[in-house]
Design brief:
The chain is mainly α and 168 residues long. It contains 7 helices and no strands.
């Protein structure tokens, strides 16, 4: 009985996980100009500051426990909003890559595949980062480590620049 419940729970989580990776809740992209107009500018430095452990320790020393928990939850909420914007950017880039593949430029096929793969890996990391942030929101005093998504996000943007001839 317990094993059946565990299997159903894991299967449900896998479905939610797959849906989170493949959903298309981002603005429609038809060409590179759309990407330039609709992409979200993300300041990774601000994200890092929101989740900086030293900043958190300093806030903890200056605020009461209740004030700290409330303030920490607001910071986590902002970080989650930033992750949503990064996720939308990755989704739009996946769509841009898909459109480039449909156009069938054989010279760009490998670059486009790398772009799509990197975007998918980034979205996977973002799901894990969200999970960590939700845990931290529930337990503001707990130390929760986030998967490093900033490097993958920068790699994704760099790969887009490297294949700047991806015109759709």
């Amino acid at each position: 009985m317990v094993s059946t419940l565990v299997i159903l729970a894991v299967a449900s989580l896998a479905l939610v996980f797959a849906y989170g990776l493949l959903r298309s809740g981002y603005p429609e992209i038809l060409n590179g100009r759309d990407w330039d107009e609709k992409k979200h500018e993300i300041d990774v430095h601000i994200f890092r500051t929101l989740l900086d452990r030293n900043e958190e320790l300093q806030l903890r020393s200056f605020l009461s426990q209740n004030q700290f928990a409330a303030f920490q939850r607001r910071r986590i909420h902002l970080a989650l909003r930033m992750l949503r914007l990064v996720d939308e950017n990755a989704g739009m880039l996946m769509e841009l890559g898909r459109l480039a593949k449909i156009k069938g430029a054989p010279a760009l096929t490998q670059k486009v595949d790398e772009l799509i793969t990197t975007a998918l890996q980034l979205r996977l990391n973002l799901l894990l980062a969200r999970l960590c942030l939700y845990l931290k929101w529930l337990f503001p005093s707990a130390t929760v480590s986030l998967p490093a998504f900033e490097v993958r996000y920068q790699h994704l943007l760099d790969s887009l620049q490297g294949s700047s001839s991806v015109t759709v």
